[in-house]
Amino acid sequence: APEESRIDRVARRDNLPRDEITARIRAQMSPREISRRGDFVVENTGAEEDLIERVKFIDRLLTLMFAAGRT
Questions:
Q1: Contact 11, 21 (CB under 8 A)
Q2: What's the chain's Rg over C-alpha atoms?
Q3: Staple partner for 46: which of 4, 20, 35, 50, CB 3.0–4.6 Å?
């Protein structure tokens, strides 16, 4: 998700000051690095229903790969 969305989400959830939230974000791996290292990247920029469908798709894909012995 875009950084501003992440900040807003954490602020609502944890009631933390903005400077603390941004410090925590800066301490994490960059989104680019996460994408580079991950086998799958789930974009979380839309509606919750879209996120659920993306996760279900990856779950089905991994289930099929595991059943086929491709892990």
A1: yes
A2: 16
A3: 50
